[in-house]
User: What shape does this take?
Amino acid sequence: MRKVVAVANQKGGVGKTTTSVNMAACLAGEDCRVLLIDLDPQGNATSGLGIDRHECDRSVYDALVAEESLEDLRIETATKGLELVPSTADLAGAQIELVDHPQREFQLRRALDEFDAEYDFIILDCPPSLGLLTLNALAAANTVLVPIQTEYYALEGLGHLLNTVELIHEHLNPALSLEGILLTMYDGRTNLSEQVADEVNTHFGDLVFETIIPRNVRLGEAPSFGMPITEYAGSSRGARSYRDFAREFLERNGHDRFHDAAS
Assistant: This one.
């Protein structure tokens, strides 16, 4: 059974796309079959995997608006076991074009329901908003992973996001649950990062992943080279942290067999 994970936070700059790309790559590195779907019109997950979005003839837009098959839209990446459905500039207009569609919140779910390809995990990189594209992701996903940066306004807007998840669970997608919260951009040199991490753990307890993603120069550089951190700087703290996170995610999901096979 494949699992669909929406990586969402309406705040920008929290490490959402960095998490989507590197989570997908690290899961592939654990012998999982992974599909990453870039739902952000900015297309950073697409370029972060070394794909020139300007050279893509088709994208996830064609699945949402033209109702084409995802099977025909996926492309291989340089990372073994990881495929991508890219984003292009056309996606920016999808919310307007779908506004009068009677099933506008369910276009991605329809596409995934009709998609027979075998993956262990499908990762949905959502835009930094709670608009129609994110609603499509939440209506199609099994769980929501929320990256939170360990900075001053970390919890700002989180309540709104969690309320939205609860409403979608009640009215659009009863299968939707919260995967957990991932702390990102942690700077061990500051008291603030430690205080924010403590506050998030106090509020959310076991929902918070034990792995914390540090603020790391290599993580910031990797997208400009079109590589996941594990390929750009595999021995860096950022790479080690995302590998640890992927393994913790697998253990939480009862998939020990993947890194048993990889070890």
About this structure: Residues 113 and 140 are 9 Å apart (CA to CA). The beta strands are 3-7, 34-38, 75-76, 82-85, 121-125, 143-149, 177-186, 208-214.
